[in-house]
Each structure stands twice: as C-alpha cells, then as structure tokens.
C-alpha cells in the first residue's frame, strides 16, 4: 500500500509554508491563563476541521512520506520504479506537511478532552500541552485502512497523555495512573449527580453508578486528598502554624522521664532476685542492658537451649516478676 502511495505521488508538487503543531506558551507572565487559553483557541480555530475523505488523503500522504524516508535510510528496498532521491525527499517533505495539517486540524479535540479534568491539579494550559503530545502520537499511529474514525482513536491517546501527566505532576504523593483514571470517573459522577439533584452524592450512590462499592469509592477519595502542610498558618497574624497545634505523642514529659527512671531502677532490683540464667534471658530478650532485644533463637543459642525452652523460661519469669512487683507495691505506679 505504501509503495502504491509513493508511486501515486511522485509527480506531485510540493509547496506551502512548513508548519508545526502549536504548543502553548506563556507570554512573559503578564497575561492571565484564561487570556492565553482564549488566544490559543482563536489561533487553532483558523484551521478547518477535516472530513473523512480528507483524513484518508492526508494519511496516505503521511504513509508515503514515511515509506520514502525508509528507502532513503536504506531500511527497505524501493520497488516504486527506481524513484530518484529528489523525488523521495519531496515525498518526505510532503508527508511532514500532511502530518502538520492533520495535527493542527485536531487541536480543538485536545482542548475538549483537557476540559474534562477541571480538578486535576494542573493548569488547563499544561493539560492541553500534554494532550497535544498524545495527539501527535495518535497521528503517527493512525491506520486509515482499518476504517476507524480518527477522533475516536485520537481521544484515547490524548486522554492517556493527560492522565499520565496528572499522575506524575499534580500531586505531592504520586498516584498510579489507574487510580487517577478511577478518580476521574468518580469526580464525573459527583458533578453530574450534583447538577441533577442539587447535592453531593453519598459514596453508595457513586458506587451504584460505577458498579463498584462504597468502601472502594471512599478509599480512592481519601487517597486523592492533598496533604496539609504543617507550615500552614492558622491565624491572621501568621504566628501560629498547623504543626504547632499537633501533640507529639512520642515526646516524654519531665514527670514521665522521672517515673521511667524510678521504674527502671526498681526493675533491676526485681530481676536481680531471679536466678542468674533467668535474669540473663530476660535482659537479653528485652534489651535491658544494651537496648537490643534478642529473638528466642538468639537467646537459645547463647544459653545452649531450644527456642521453645527459652519461651517457657521467659513466660515463667514474667509471671514471677509480676508477682514480686505486686508484693513490693511497684505495680501501683506502673
């Protein structure tokens, strides 16, 4: 098919101005995003949409250019009647122009898809730019001979590019792509439900629409929540930060430090009343001397006993320590 396309277009004349697919650029930061979007829409609206016949025609031209480039690169042998290098180079250039026209004529499709993600956490301009990359990929991969409608085919590639960008860039904690897409479906149901009923849907109502379950919906929404900065100000003066209001549950108060010291000294006295082997086993198991807790197996090897025997000795020793602590009144402050 590509060979026929080369032969069919060898005599075609090239011309026109070389164009490239539009990319969205900020202008010095002086124009608001909405103005940039408006300018971009005005620019891309100048290119007319394509009908099915034109899509096929451009696709054939692109295919011929790709095949001509392969001949020039020596990847395939020419069977197009000994085409000259100049003719092949002309076909390559014509294919590039056709590709640019194809891309430009579908940029509005990218905007339409990008606007489906209003709560993505990225500016619309960034979503459009990512979608444009997906559109380029769609044009390169499109096979007109299969009879598919290009807009349907391209939408998948555009959506893939946008959702991957959202997953990679929009969140402090990255979500997998499949979760981003699932979140998008949940958000869409939320918007439609709110529009119809004037309230936000319950998790069960969302799950019913998506053939899911309420627990799954709740989990996805929880995972998607943006983290709260500990440096966020909570008063008008900015003197108090959110982190200042959180209790450090791992911090030890002065009173608790004194009590812990008293307890440790009392505990040493109680352990000292055990026989030497039992005392050694308890100290090793709970890291009393060096802070390193040993496993039953490690203690067993040290004392030449089985793991099960160490467990039995430990259990008996703990019961004995508890009894001694009760007798001395130590457990009253424990």
UniProtKB/TrEMBL annotation:
Q: Which organism is it from?
A: Streptomyces globisporus
Q: Which domain of life is it from?
A: Bacteria
Q: Which family does it belong to?
A: Belongs to the sigma-70 factor family.
The name on file for this protein is RNA polymerase sigma factor
* Domain RNA polymerase sigma-70 stretches: 126-139, 295-321
Chain intervals for the UniProt region annotation (Disordered): 1-23
Alphabetically list the UniProt keywords. Answer: DNA-binding, Sigma factor, Transcription, Transcription regulation
Its biological function?
Answer: Sigma factors are initiation factors that promote the attachment of RNA polymerase to specific initiation sites and are then released.
Q: Which InterPro entries match?
A: RNA_pol_sigma-70_dom, RNA_pol_sigma70, RNA_pol_sigma70_r1_2, RNA_pol_sigma70_r2, RNA_pol_sigma70_r3, RNA_pol_sigma70_r4, RNA_pol_sigma_r2, RNA_pol_sigma_r3/r4-like
Name residues in a coiled coil. none
Q: Name one GO biological process term.
A: DNA-templated transcription initiation
In this chain, composition skew of type Polar residues spans: 10-22
Q: What Gene3D superfamilies has UniProt attached to this entry?
A: RNA Polymerase Primary Sigma Factor, Winged helix-like DNA-binding domain superfamily/Winged helix DNA-binding domain
State the Gene Ontology terms under molecular function.
DNA binding; sigma factor activity
């Amino acid at each position: 098919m590509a060979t026929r396309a080369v032969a069919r277009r060898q005599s075609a004349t090239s011309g026109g101005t070389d164009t490239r697919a539009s990319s969205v650029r900020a202008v010095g930061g002086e124009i608001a995003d909405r103005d940039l979007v408006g300018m971009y829409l005005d620019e891309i609206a100048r290119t007319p949409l394509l009908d099915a016949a034109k899509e096929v025609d451009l696709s054939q031209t692109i295919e011929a250019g790709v095949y001509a480039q392969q001949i020039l690169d020596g990847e395939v042998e020419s069977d197009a009647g000994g085409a000259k290098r100049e003719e092949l180079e002309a076909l390559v250039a014509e294919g590039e122009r056709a590709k640019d026209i194809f891309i430009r004529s579908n940029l509005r499709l990218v905007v339409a898809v990008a606007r489906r993600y209003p709560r993505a956490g990225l500016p619309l301009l960034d979503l459009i730019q990512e979608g444009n990359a997906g559109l380029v990929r769609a044009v390169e991969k499109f096979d007109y001979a299969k009879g598919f409608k290009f807009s349907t085919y391209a939408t998948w590639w555009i959506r893939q590019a946008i959702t991957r960008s959202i997953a990679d860039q929009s969140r402090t904690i990255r979500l997998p792509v499949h979760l981003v897409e699932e979140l998008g479906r949940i958000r869409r149901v939320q918007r439609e439900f709110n529009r119809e009923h004037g309230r936000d849907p319950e998790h069960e109502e969302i799950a019913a629409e998506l053939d899911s379950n309420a627990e799954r919906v709740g989990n996805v929404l929880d995972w998607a929540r943006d983290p709260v900065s500990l440096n966020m100000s909570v008063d008008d003066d900015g003197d108090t930060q959110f982190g200042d209001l959180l209790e450090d549950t791992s911090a030890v108060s002065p009173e608790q430090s004194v009590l812990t010291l008293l307890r440790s000294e009392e505990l040493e006295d109680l352990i000292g009343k055990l026989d030497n082997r039992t005392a050694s086993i308890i100290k090793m198991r709970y890291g009393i001397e060096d802070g390193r807790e040993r496993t039953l197996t490690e203690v067993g090897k040290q004392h030449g006993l089985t793991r099960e025997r160490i467990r039995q000795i430990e259990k008996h020793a703990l019961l004995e320590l508890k009894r001694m602590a009760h007798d001395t009144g130590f457990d009253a402050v424990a």
